[in-house]
Amino acid sequence: MKEPVENKAAEVKETSTKAAAPKATNKAENVTLDDKQIQQWKKQWGKIFKTTVGGEAFIWRKLKRKEYVEIMSNAEVEEAEEEVLGSRIYKRQERITKLVVLFPTDIESRIEENAGLATSISDEVIAKSGFDVSATEEL
């Protein structure tokens, strides 16, 4: 489920109560999820979205082109891991998710706890970041 976040602070606050948990790198430690914070993110990032995974809300922003190119060109996969089918894809999904999730701030530990979280969120991010073709027709 994905939807743009517009004045939904109360709804998100009820579904995601672990805001005081340890932070992910490069994120604010004490994020209070309210309308003021949502408006600040919108001003900084443009559209922001809420995706619910396993009954828990995650607030994220779209991926920028420069960020996408960086992630796709630097897979950071060790030689031993490169033999494992798909390990590069999983690393990219994790990097995308860690980069764009604004709330909750402890996204790294959430990814470790929930095996499919990075895949679910990164798929949504890619779709909303301009990689989703909604309609193509032959002329």
Kindly identify the CATH topology.
rbstp2171
- Note poorly predicted spans: 7-27
Number of domains as seen in the coordinates: 1
Provide a count of the helices.
7
| Mean of pLDDT | 78
Give the helix level as a range of percent: 40-55%
What is the highest CATH level, the class? Alpha Beta
Description:
- Helix content is 48%, strand content 13%.
- By secondary structure, the chain is of the alpha+beta class.
- It has a single domain, classed as 2-Layer Sandwich (rbstp2171), CATH 3.30.2220.
- The chain has a four-stranded antiparallel sheet.
- The longest helix is centred in the last third of the chain and has 15 residues, at 117-131.
- It is globular and about 50 Å long.
- The chain starts with a strand and ends in an 8-residue tail after the last helix.
